[in-house]
């Protein structure tokens, strides 16, 4: 099968498709740094670095360098989701980034692939009363596609991370629609906010299934990486030990090294907070001394914001990897080093292979990783496509 990855970013979705045996023949991404990362790990994919709407115009006008209807078996992608994100305090249904959903559907309408997979954040389920997913499903139906919506927890599929995401499958005409994979790992139960109307679409373990594997931990993911200091790091890391877990073994680079083990420098007050939690793995802002507690969070007590300014635990899991490791939003302090997690550690949490090198400024590298579809989650989903 030949696939077209729209809004491809650093290529997490593409890597998952390729791992599942699908050829990613074309991809589109507008960010130049993400494109450099993508090209480096997908040398055989034709990558179009331009605005998706401009690319769509060229496509419809019959540009000979672009695929024709019938050439594409799978269109997959995650239109930029910040307009829907629960971490965006100013969510707006009229955010122009949300209109890229329409662009995605226009590609589907013109190219008529056999299968469609769309990925986005759970915030899309609650914005404007859930109108967006209903409109997407209705539009795909009108274009001739059978549809299935699933809400998946990445941790159920071998990720060391609490990450809920929404996926919509579409299959054209009489083609059977792929099921979503059943959970394989006994991941700690977590809450998904804003999905009340779609709770029947949450993919959960079968009740009483005792065959689930132990969940992957922070330590499983990053314990083999060398120690680095606040605001420093190593651009190229040569492995100094054998893998310390099966997860590390899966992700390691056969060339014997990895990249981007570098970290943001914490400011003075944030570094003081980090130091205050040095021996408190799995902690949050409530564990800080009174003088270091952020005043704007005091009114929340032990509520859902408890892991902000927190320290990860080696035996626990990562919070959702975001586009920047900002302590205000989540627990991003390393379990046993006084710093935030590095670019490579973020990539490990997202199951990017160690062979993938991220380009651009450090802020761009973090953003590319945070915006990506986890590789192993993408693999599990596309493995259901027979």
UniProtKB/TrEMBL annotation:
<comment type="similarity">
    <text>Belongs to the class I-like SAM-binding methyltransferase superfamily. C5-methyltransferase family.</text>
</comment>
<dbReference type="InterPro" id="IPR018117">
    <property type="entry name" value="C5_DNA_meth_AS"/>
</dbReference>
<dbReference type="Pfam" id="PF00145">
    <property type="entry name" value="DNA_methylase"/>
</dbReference>
<keyword id="KW-0680">Restriction system</keyword>
<keyword id="KW-0489">Methyltransferase</keyword>
<dbReference type="InterPro" id="IPR031303">
    <property type="entry name" value="C5_meth_CS"/>
</dbReference>
<keyword id="KW-0949">S-adenosyl-L-methionine</keyword>
<dbReference type="GO" id="GO:0003677">
    <property type="term" value="F:DNA binding"/>
</dbReference>
<dbReference type="GO" id="GO:0032259">
    <property type="term" value="P:methylation"/>
</dbReference>
<dbReference type="GO" id="GO:0044027">
    <property type="term" value="P:negative regulation of gene expression via chromosomal CpG island methylation"/>
</dbReference>
<dbReference type="GO" id="GO:0009307">
    <property type="term" value="P:DNA restriction-modification system"/>
</dbReference>
<dbReference type="GO" id="GO:0003886">
    <property type="term" value="F:DNA (cytosine-5-)-methyltransferase activity"/>
</dbReference>
<dbReference type="InterPro" id="IPR050390">
    <property type="entry name" value="C5-Methyltransferase"/>
</dbReference>
<keyword id="KW-0808">Transferase</keyword>
<feature type="active site">
    <location>
        <position position="81"/>
    </location>
</feature>
<dbReference type="InterPro" id="IPR029063">
    <property type="entry name" value="SAM-dependent_MTases_sf"/>
</dbReference>
<protein>
    <recommendedName>
        <fullName>Cytosine-specific methyltransferase</fullName>
        <ecNumber>2.1.1.37</ecNumber>
    </recommendedName>
</protein>
<dbReference type="InterPro" id="IPR001525">
    <property type="entry name" value="C5_MeTfrase"/>
</dbReference>
